[in-house]
Amino acid sequence: MEIKYLTPGPGNLREVMGLMPLLYREIGPGLALVMEELIKDDAYFKLLALDEAGAPAGFMAGGCRLELDFECRAGIIEDIIIRPDLQRRGIGKAMLAEFEKWCSARGAAGVLVPCGRPGFYEKAGFEKLPVTRYWKELPAR
Ligand SMILES: CC(C)(COP(=O)(O)OP(=O)(O)OC[C@H]1O[C@@H](n2cnc3c(N)ncnc32)[C@H](O)[C@@H]1OP(=O)(O)O)[C@@H](O)C(=O)NCCC(=O)NCCS
User: Fold this and answer.
1) Whose C-alpha lies nearest to ligand 1, atom 21?
2) Is residue 132 part of a domain?
3) I need a surface site. Which of 14, 119, 123, 135 has the fewest CB within 10 A?
4) Residue 28 falls within a domain, yes or no?
């Protein structure tokens, strides 16, 4: 199957959001707002994969910023989702390779996955780190 890759714009928000239930068990009203902003923001890497019929096959988003722990500029993976019937065909690997090129062009020395599931990243050469995440809700403005 031939897969087409494109940088999504605001017109692709619905297609991107259609893939989100594959990654998140609970989706609140905030996700569409955050995704809408992310898609518009040129500081982020976004890639949408479409199958031969033009239906969404996968989506990846990430950024690039200074990382104090790693003492460098680093790529940060926000999301990578491939449609279940198209998984294990190299689409995730191809999107990750594009992201790594995008990060290298911005001077990144590595790529960080703040929250990832086991399997794919180990195969792609990532080292698993023992980190605990903390979160605190702030009062609404
Ligand atoms: C994880 C995910 C993005 C991988 O994308 P994919 O297109 O299926 O992966 P690829 O076909 O490109 O696989 C690349 C390599 O990783 C391996 N791999 C992929 N998913 C794997 C998994 N869950 N466990 C073990 N290995 C895996 C493949 O076998 C392949 O190995 P190879 O290079 O030796 O052939 C995709 O399965 C997915 O969307 N999963 C659900 C959402 C998710 O877990 N996202 C990532 C966490 S944020």
Assistant:
1) 120
2) no
3) 135
4) yes
How many independent structural domains does the chain possess?
1
Query: Which residues have CB under 6 Å of ligand 1?
Result: 22-23, 80-82, 87-93, 116-117, 119-120, 123
The CATH number of residue 102's host domain is: 3.40.630.30
- The pTM is what? 0.95
pLDDT of residue 6 exceeding 90 = yes
Residue 136 lies in a domain: no
Question: By residue range, what is the domain housing residue 29?
Answer: 4-123
Q: Is the pLDDT of residue 141 over 90?
A: no
* pLDDT over 90 (residue 27): yes
Give the pLDDT confidence of 78-111 residue by residue, as tens digits.
Answer: 999 999 999 999 999 999 999 999 999 999 999 9
Q: What is the pLDDT of residue 1?
A: 84
135 found inside a domain = no
The residue count for the chain:
141
